[in-house]
Amino acid sequence: MKPNSSTAQIVTKPKVVIVINRRGGGTKTTLSCALIDAFLEGKIEVALVEAEQDERITPLYKDRIDCAYLPFNAETDRQLRADAKILARFWDKGASFIGDSVEAGKSVVMDTGSNSDIRFAEWLKGGGKDELNDLDAEIHLVVPLSTDGDTIKGAMASLKLVLPHLPNAKVTLALSAPVERLMVPNDNPGLGELLRSYSKHASRAVRFPIGTSSLMSMKEVQTRRHKDVSRMTKVEFIQALGLENTRENRLEVGREIEEFRVWWQDEVAAAGVIIGTVEGEKNGFALLPKKKQEPKDAAA
């Protein structure tokens, strides 16, 4: 499915989409990139705040959108924990950027690094919540999940800290494992507890596909936007990898690129479901079932 082939609505109010999970390695970066691409594919202006140990997303998008990088690492965490003024300055920079972006009519994707949720929640509690809640924008908390128990615990920890300060936020659970493995309560009691705890906030759970192509681990892919990779020709990719332009290599690379292209289209479609530009019910990305309607009275 093409990313922009099933438009549900035009986003009329800017969205501040915060991708969060205390656990690292939970596809937050991939998900944030897909969200940015979904906005761009929908012709919606978007900006990025990246609160991470390293600039991973900013170099990929800085020539296309406005970006703000907040370096968050172990030393930063120590400083923010020790000094409330440093804590305020750190997150105020991001909040100011978000405010200016929203005022300009832009949506914002905020990518958060592992363990940054603790300091973010402290800033919210100290008054930062007013800066976000007073924005003329929809606040979304997007939580990547897999069957890994630590990822589920990280999601619960982050929501428990952050959500009380953003009571109007919409929560989306982005499930990256096969549906049948995630949605069986007996196999995933942690996920069941998570869904029960935040059911009144969770507007949807969305299947977020994870790429299996061997291209995913290559530096030549990791340093490019996925959209750009999906548009590369076989010869261009062979040259980027430094391979010989043989028939065997062209066939192998061609299969990998096609697999990658299909996956990229799916991930952006799933991200479109999250931000409301793609109808999830039509393509199987929205997972939370609709409530069953009571059968109509036959005599009516």
Task: Record the SSE blueprint.
Layout: E1 15-19, H1 28-41, E2 46-52, H2 58-61, E3 67-71, H3 74-82, H4 84-103, E4 107-112, H5 116-133, E5 138-145, H6 149-162, E6 170-175, H7 179-182, H8 189-197, E7 202-207, H9 219-222, H10 226-230, H11 234-241, H12 247-275, H13 280-283
Parallel strand pairs: 1-4, 1-5, 2-3, 2-4, 5-6, 6-7
**What's the overall average pLDDT, rounded?**
81
Distance between the termini: 41 Å
Shape: globular
What percent of residues are in strands? 5-15%
**Major pleated sheet:** 7 strands, parallel
Strand order of the largest sheet: 3-2-4-1-5-6-7
Q: Got a strand count?
A: 7
Give the tally of structural domains: 1
CATH class: Alpha Beta
Helix content: 40-55%
Protein architecture, described:
Helix 4 crosses helix 5 and helix 11 packs across helix 12. The protein starts with 14 loop residues before the first strand and ends in a 17-residue tail after the last helix. With 300 residues, it is of the alpha/beta class. The N terminus and C terminus are likely disordered. The chain has one domain: Rossmann fold (3-Layer(aba) Sandwich). It has a 7-stranded parallel beta sheet with strand order 3-2-4-1-5-6-7, with helices on both faces. 47% of the residues lie in helices and 14% in strands. The longest helix is centred in the C-terminal third of the chain and has 29 residues.
